[in-house]
Amino acid sequence: MSIFEIIGGIFILLGSLFLFLGGLGIFRMPDIYNRLQAGTKATTLGAMSVIFGVGILQLEDNWTWILKAMIILIFIAYSNPISSHALARAMYKAKRYPYIKSTDENMDAYREISDNQNKEEKL
Amino acid sequence: MTYIIYIAMFFMIVGLTLSAFRFVKGPTAGDRTVALDTLTIIIVAGLVLLSYVFDRFIYMDVALVYAVLGFIGVIVIARYLEGAL
After folding, report:
1. How many distinct structural domains can be found in chain B?
2. pLDDT at residue A29, as a whole number
3. Residue B35 burial by CB count (10 A; 0-12/13-18/19+): exposed, middle or buried?
4. Is the pTM of this model over 0.80?
5. What residue in A sits closest to B4 (Cα-Cα)?
6. Which ipTM did the prediction report?
7. Where are the domains of chain A?
8. Where in the sequence is the domain holding B55, given as residue range(s)?
């Protein structure tokens, strides 16, 4: 194995692990804001790492792969936070309140609003 | 090298399955849109990995176009859910 294969393999393994963690966060988290947090950040890092690893793997045979890999990587790096921000803003404007599990009594009024909203909004 | 690709594909398929489950089950439309965003990104990474496996340079273009279309779709659905469209 050459040095390019070792570095690219490490990047691909790390990226696929982060993609798996993003899918697990989407499956596990209780609320839409938590799902946005888990699903967007982990998958951004994972996809960037996998694409950069493929560019590194082909570097000794064909150096043009890394140029297109960098184009896709830069596009993902700015488009994924924008879509996450747009979704969070839309949910906040549509009055979806977050899931509250704390035992603080100052949060009681807010928890009641949250329960009513989540019962009504079954789109 | 082949085993590294297999392990990476296994992790990606498990992540795809979990987020597809949330896409089917999700209680509201917002949850489904979040799951759609995650599905798009995982599929883009998988297409780039497949372009290395099959040694076809043209699949990178497919991944780029799919990333652009998924981004535009998520933005449009978010604006619709906000009520501004």
Report:
1. 1
2. 85
3. buried
4. yes
5. A9
6. 0.90
7. 3-97
8. 2-82
pLDDT 10s digits, A51-96: 999 999 988 888 888 999 999 999 999 999 999 999 998 888 877 7
Q: How far is CA B11 from CA A14, A26, B33, B51, in A?
A: 10, 15, 22, 18
What is the distance between the alpha carbons of residues B85 and B75, in angstroms, rounded to a whole number? 11
Low-confidence spans in chain B with pLDDT less than 50: none
* Distance, CA of A28 to CA of A75 (rounded, Å): 28
- pLDDT value of residue B2: 84
One-letter amino acid at B47 equals L
Of B9, B45, B68, the CB nearest to A46: B45
Flag if A20 and B12 touch (Cβ within 8 Å): yes
Per the structure block, which two tokens stand in for A17?
């692990």
